[in-house]
């Protein structure tokens, strides 16, 4: 074979799993070429193509052999890559570790075919496919065609009408209709221009402040296909009559920021940004604003305050941003996923019409980040209306451990926990709210029976309490009191009256807080109280944690009748709190025990 072309996933997940080591391995092969990323070997030349995350984070590092047929390999190590290259140099196919392929003779070896069959990839259509640093590859995939179309037609009102008719809703919060938000913002711009007879500033903002634990949708999209978001923002600017845009992205996403910076520079070079875009009178400038990681800045009014250089704190609405937003000018805010949908919806070449996907009130698709105790963790995109059960057990492959499914946390710290008997709930805005959870940005954390739901509620309240900006009394003080009560319960000092106190505080915080963070902060507590009240009572009444998670309620002891004195537990103990002689019963010094559970894991006789 004259040349082997390898596409390597170099998103954050791939890099963390060792993808850069694979690139280094190839670069160290004999007779390194002078040309970057091409390394001739005895059997020919190896070309490296970089791409973003394809979504199968559990199988990283991922390598695709590109040719007449595509063959994608997962969990690739330098040793496996050496075998792959050796086989292809001999004109053979390496059949191990195949996760996806278009090769008809190798499909029986592919392990993840089902994972994609339930998905409809619109937002993720280019992720893991193109080089995110190459504007040429984006254009070749159909990128910027929609922008060219709307510039040529020069009908801003028609763009808004098309978005309204598509049924697209804001994907990242409460699901407000995107087209309606654009319409209201445009009307505010035109109204103010009419009143002053002068051009009025208006702004487009992309909310990429992804702060939910377990969520990485925005990061992966910006890393893998930044131009899709940029194109969507430019189209929004044209429709609304705005000439300036900001992408608000947290500084903890260095690779996403790097790819955005490169993409913006290339877009200016190609005249997709700046003055006289594509030969028209329209101009649009785009800037990156790095956030410092405050969760509250995901709320739109706090985000705008941060862009203006102020402390990120929410404001009372109305007026809404569409009327008076950034620097008191009409402002449209959507999230990463929403903007990435725009070019597809306005394209003349939709593989699947956006409006035909989903349910009556929730159209299109939704990207979810699967995390927790699930076999196939990663990023998926599914049509609205699919059931949670299909997502977890068909796409996600079910539970990672032998322990049964217990709950799924949906919507991050502001979301709620959903039980097994509710897994047939369709994924749409209204249905999820009915369970006590929310769609949110799309984080989905799967938990098994080894999870303590009281501790889960305590964890999310701890996060919320730390991230509260402190402006609202109930959010500032109420979440602290709730956290104190939850901590008291997990430490075995709870009282039965604490349950009613928690519920009362949760209701009051939700009703009196100013922004969405405070209003939804009690959701983890409310849903766990609703569905797992028995666990709260077990902690309070019997001073036991059914999942053996809360350390203050755990006591490890050794059954003298079962202990054979093998010393395995003694050797495994990190603090040397186990004593005893060989072939004699051992005992645990409770004053030293840190309750790590290592003794129970190594004991072969069930004596712990």
Fold topology:
Elements: E1 3-9, H1 12-17, H2 19-27, E2 38-41, E3 44-51, E4 63-66, E5 71-73, H3 78-89, E6 98-101, H4 113-117, H5 135-140, H6 145-153, H7 156-166, H8 178-196, E7 203-208, H9 217-224, H10 226-240, E8 244-250, H11 254-269, E9 285-291, H12 300-307, E10 331-335, H13 336-345, E11 365-372, E12 378-383, H14 388-395, E13 405-410, E14 416-419, H15 429-435, E15 443-448, H16 453-467, H17 473-490, H18 497-512, H19 516-520, H20 523-531, H21 533-541, H22 568-572, E16 578-579, E17 587-588, H23 598-602
Parallel strand pairs: 1-3, 7-8, 7-10, 8-9, 11-15
Antiparallel strand pairs: 1-4, 2-3, 4-5, 5-6, 11-12, 13-14, 13-15, 16-17
Helix pairs in contact: 6-10, 7-8, 7-10, 9-11, 10-13, 16-17, 17-18, 18-20
Descriptive notes:
- With 608 residues, the protein is an alpha/beta fold.
- The chain has five domains: 3-113, Glutaredoxin (3-Layer(aba) Sandwich); 135-355, Rossmann fold (3-Layer(aba) Sandwich), CATH 3.40.50; 365-448, Roll (Ubiquitin-like (UB roll)); 453-541, Up-down Bundle (de novo design (two linked rop proteins)), CATH 1.20.1440; 555-608, 2-Layer Sandwich (Alpha-Beta Plaits).
- It contains 23 helices and 17 strands.
- It has a six-stranded mixed β-sheet with strand order 2-3-1-4-5-6, covered by helices on one side. Strands 12-11-15-13-14 form a five-stranded mixed β-sheet. It has a four-stranded parallel β-sheet with strand order 9-8-7-10, sandwiched between helices.
- The protein is globular.
- Mean pLDDT is 91; it is low at 31-43.
């Amino acid at each position: 074979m004259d040349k082997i072309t390898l596409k390597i996933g170099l998103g954050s997940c791939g890099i963390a799993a060792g993808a850069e080591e694979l690139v280094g391995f190839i670069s160290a092969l004999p007779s390194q070429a002078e040309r970057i990323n091409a390394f001739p070997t005895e059997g020919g030349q190896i070309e490296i193509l970089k791409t973003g995350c394809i979504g199968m984070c559990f199988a990283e590092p991922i390598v695709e052999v590109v040719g007449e047929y595509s063959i994608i390999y997962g969990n690739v190590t330098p040793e496996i890559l050496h075998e792959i290259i050796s086989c292809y140099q001999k004109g053979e196919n390496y059949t191990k570790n195949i996760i996806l392929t278009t090769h008809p003779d190798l499909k029986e070896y592919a392990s993840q075919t089902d994972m994609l069959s339930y998905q409809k990839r619109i937002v993720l259509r280019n992720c893991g496919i193109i080089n995110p640093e190459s504007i040429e590859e984006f254009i070749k995939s159909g990128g910027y065609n929609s922008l060219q179309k709307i510039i040529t037609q020069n009908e801003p009102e028609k763009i808004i009408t098309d978005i309204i008719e598509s049924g697209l809703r804001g994907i990242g919060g409460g699901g407000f209709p995107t087209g309606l938000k654009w319409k209201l913002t445009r009307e505010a711009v035109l109204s103010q221009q009419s009143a002053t007879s002068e051009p009025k500033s208006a702004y487009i903002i992309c909310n990429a402040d992804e702060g939910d634990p377990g969520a990485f949708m925005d990061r992966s999209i910006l890393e893998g296909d930044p131009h899709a978001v940029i194109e969507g923002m430019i189209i929004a600017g044209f429709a609304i009559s705005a000439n300036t845009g900001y992408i608000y992205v947290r500084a903890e996403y260095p690779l996403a920021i790097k790819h955005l910076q490169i993409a913006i520079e290339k877009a200016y070079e190609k005249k997709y940004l700046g003055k006289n875009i594509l030969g028209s009178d329209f101009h649009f400038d785009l800037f990156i604003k790095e956030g410092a990681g405050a969760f509250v800045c995901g709320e739109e009014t706090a985000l705008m305050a941060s862009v203006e250089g102020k402390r990120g704190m929410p404001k009372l609405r109305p007026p809404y941003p569409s009327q008076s937003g950034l620097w008191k000018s009409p402002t449209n805010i959507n999230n990463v996923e929403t903007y990435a949908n725009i070019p597809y919806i306005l394209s003349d070449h939709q593989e699947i019409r956006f409006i035909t996907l989903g349910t009556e009130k929730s159209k299109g698709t939704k990207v979810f980040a699967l995390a927790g105790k699930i076999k196939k963790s990663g990023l998926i995109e599914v049509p609205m209306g699919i059931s949670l059960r299909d997502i977890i057990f068909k796409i996600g492959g079910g539970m990672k451990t032998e322990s049964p499914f217990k709950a799924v946390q949906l919507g991050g710290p502001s979301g709620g926990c959903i039980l097994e008997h509710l897994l047939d709930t369709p994924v749409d805005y209204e249905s999820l709210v009915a369970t006590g959870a929310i769609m949110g940005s799309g984080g989905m954390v799967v938990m098994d029976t080894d999870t303590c739901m009281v501790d889960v509620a305590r964890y999310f309240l701890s996060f919320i309490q730390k991230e509260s900006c402190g402006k609202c009394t109930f959010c500032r003080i109420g979440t602290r009191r709730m956290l104190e009560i939850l901590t008291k319960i997990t430490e075995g000092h709870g009282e039965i009256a604490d349950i009613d106190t928690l519920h009362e505080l949760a209701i009051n915080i939700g009703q009196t807080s100013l922004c969405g963070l405070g209003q939804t902060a009690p959701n983890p507590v409310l849903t766990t109280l609703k569905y797992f009240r028995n666990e709260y009572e077990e902690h309070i009444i019997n001073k036991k944690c059914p999942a053996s998670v809360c350390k203050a309620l755990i006591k490890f002891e050794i059954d003298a009748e079962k202990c054979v004195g093998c010393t395995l537990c003694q050797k495994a103990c990190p603090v040397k709190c186990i004593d005893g002689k060989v072939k004699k019963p051992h005992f645990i010094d409770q004053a030293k025990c840190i309750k790590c559970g290592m003794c129970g894991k190594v004991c072969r006789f069930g004596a712990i």
